[in-house]
Amino acid sequence: MAVIGIDLGTTNSLAAVWRDGEVCLIPDKSGNYIIPSIVAVDTDGNILTGYAAREEELLAPERCASNFKRFMGTEKCYHMAGHKFRPEELSALVLKKIKEGAEEFLGEEVTEAVISVPAYFNNDQRYATKLAAQLAGIACERIINEPSAAALTVRREEIFGKRKEEEAESVNTEDETEEQCLLVFDLGGGTLDVSIVDCFENIVEITAIAGDNHLGGADFDKAIAVSFCAENNLDWEALSEQEKTALMFEGRRCKEALSVQETVTMTYQRDEKYFSMELTSEKLFTFAPGLFRRIRNIILRAVSDAGLQLLDITQVLLVGGSSRMPAVQRFLSQLFGREIAASAEPDFLVARGVGIYAGMKERREELKDIIITDVCPFSLGVRVQGDLADGKGKMCMMIERNNILPCRVTKYFVTTSEFQEEVPIVVYQGESYHPEQNLKIGEFCLSVPKAPAGEEGVFVTFTYNINGILEVFAVSNSTGQKKSVTMVSGFGQLSSDKLTEKKEWIRAQQYLLQEEEEQKAILSMAERLFAETSGAVREYVDQMIQYYNYAWKSKSLVQIRKAGKKVLQGLLAVDMQLKQSLFDQEILDEKFDWEEEEE
Ligand code: AMP
C-alpha cells in the first residue's frame, strides 16, 4: 500500500512517489506526467478526464468543466449532459484517475495521498479538497501548501547534492548547507501564492504567506481575449460562451507562445470574417496593468510580513505555469532589481515536493531529518460587540496571520446584554477591523445561564492544525457546557448517506482505457479540423480518420499506438497551418479590397 503525493492543479495535475531513495514522478501509460484537470461527459455518457476531456472542451464546452479548483469550497454547480457536479466531485474524478494510474504504475494499491493546495486556500477550500479525496477513495491526512512543497524540493535537492559531494570527497561538513531566504512565487492557472521561506540546515521554515485565490493565467487569457475584441471592434459581452471559450483558448495559446517567440499573431474567425492581432510581452503589460499591480502588492505584503525587505531575499523561485511568461519575469526582475529567471522544470517542483512529503509520511529513513514548518496565511477571529454605534461589531483576532502551525489560542468573552441566554460565536477570516468585510467561515451558539451583562462568559479556543483547518471550541464558564465545531460553511455539510451515495457513484465510474481516451482525443480533434478545413486539406484529414480507424480494427495495440502517433502529428501540423492560413487569408482579403478600390 503506497502513499503518493498529488499536485492537484487548476489546469494540470501530477502525482509523485518516494521510491528507492528518490522522488519519482508518476507517468500515465503514454508516458505523460501531466494530466489536464478537466472533466467532460461525452455523447455516449462516458466520463472523460485529462487529454480526452481537454480536446472535448474545444468541441463542446457545454459538456466540459475546467478551472473548477477555483470554486472549491463554494456552492457552485456545473451542469453537464444532464449531470450536476460540485467542484469537489469534479476534483474527485481527477483524483480517482490519478489514483488508478498510480496503482497501475506502482503495482500496488494507493490508499493515502498528501495533496498540495494553494497556500492561500481558506478553510472551506481545504475541507473541500479533503472531501474530494474521500470521494475518490483516498485518505488524505495531510494537506501541504504548494509553495512549501516547491521549497521542499529545492532544499532537499540542495541537501542531497551536498551529501553526495561529501560522499564523493569522503568529508563531513556537518550540514553546512548555506542559509537561504527564498521567495517562492507561484503563479498558476487560477491562483497566486507568494511565500517567504527561511532555509537553514535541514529546516524549511515558512515565515510569511500572501496570495490571491482569483489571480492566475486564466485572468491573462481573458485580458488578451477582451483586448483582442477591443482592437478588432468586436463586442466581448455579445459573444456566446462557446465563442468566448474559443477566444480565451486562442489567447492562452498565444500567451504561451510568447515564452519562445517575441511576437505572436492571434487570429480568430467569426461569420466568415477573419480577425487578427499582434501580441507581444510589452503589449501584455498594457492589456493587464491591474493584474501586475496586484502581483506587486502581494509580493510586498509577504516580504514586509516576514519583517524583511526585497534586498534580503537571496533567491526567487518561480513556480507554476504562468511564471513562464516573459512579461512576468521581466516585471519581477524590475521589482527586485536583478535578473529573475525561470526555475528548472517549474511544472514539476510542487509535485516533487508533495512526493517528498509522501515519503516523509511513509517515514522513509533518508528523509527522517528534514523538518518543515508552515504558517497560517490569514488572521482568524470572532465578531465581538464593537464600540461603534452601527451595532455591526468588530473583529477580535484570535490567531494572527503568519502564526506558526499548528497553533492554539484561548480567550475569554463575557456577555454584553442583560440576561442573554446564549453567546453567538461568529468566526471570520481576514484582516479588516469590520467583520462584514472579512470572510465569514462559520458560526454557532453556546447557551449560558441568564444573568446581568458581564456576569456570564465563555472560553473560546481556536485550534488551527497543520492542514490549515480550524476547530473552534467554546465552554461556558459557569455550567461547563461545551461545543466543538470544525469550521466549514454550509457546502461541506453532507449527510453521511449523501456522502456514501456520491462516493459510490464516483467509484462506479469506469474510465475509458488509456487507448480509448487517446482515440477519443484524436478523433475529436480530427472531426474539429474536418469541420474547419475544406478541399484537399479536408480530404487529408478524412484520410487520417480512416487510417486511424483502420488501425483500431486491427486490434493490435502496437498498430494503434503507431497510427495514433502518426495521425496526431499530422493533425497538429494541419492545426498549425490552419491558424497560419487564417492570417494569410486575412492578408489576401485585405489585398483584394485594396485592388477593388484601385479599380
Ligand atoms: P499551473 O496551474 O501551474 O498548471 O499553470 C497553468 C497556467 O500556466 C495556465 O494558465 C497556462 O496557460 C500557463 N502556462 C503554461 N505554460 C506557459 C508558458 N510557456 N507561458 C505562459 N503561460 C504558461
Can you walk me through this structure?
It is a single chain. This protein has 14 helices and 26 strands. The protein is α+β, with helices and mostly antiparallel strands and 599 residues long. α5 crosses α6. It starts with a strand and ends with a helix. The structure holds adenosine monophosphate (AMP).
Question: What's the short story on this structure?
Answer:
The protein is of the alpha+beta class. It has helices at residues 51-59, 87-106, 123-135, 146-169, 217-231, 241-257, 281-287, 289-305, 326-336, 346-361, 496-508, 514-532, 535-554, 557-598; strands at residues 2-8, 12-19, 22-25, 35-36, 39-41, 47-49, 64-65, 78-80, 83-85, 110-117, 139-145, 180-187, 192-200, 203-212, 263-270, 273-280, 315-319, 371-373, 380-384, 394-399, 407-414, 422-429, 439-447, 457-464, 470-476, 482-486.
Helix and strand layout, with pairings?
Blueprint: E1 2-8, E2 12-19, E3 22-25, E4 35-36, E5 39-41, E6 47-49, H1 51-59, E7 64-65, E8 78-80, E9 83-85, H2 87-106, E10 110-117, H3 123-135, E11 139-145, H4 146-169, E12 180-187, E13 192-200, E14 203-212, H5 217-231, H6 241-257, E15 263-270, E16 273-280, H7 281-287, H8 289-305, E17 315-319, H9 326-336, H10 346-361, E18 371-373, E19 380-384, E20 394-399, E21 407-414, E22 422-429, E23 439-447, E24 457-464, E25 470-476, E26 482-486, H11 496-508, H12 514-532, H13 535-554, H14 557-598
Parallel strand pairs: 1-10, 10-11, 12-17, 14-18
Antiparallel strand pairs: 1-2, 2-3, 2-4, 5-6, 5-7, 8-9, 12-13, 13-14, 15-16, 19-20, 19-22, 21-24, 22-23, 24-25, 25-26
Bound molecules: adenosine monophosphate.
Adenosine monophosphate (AMP) binds near residues 10, 11, 188, 217 and 321.
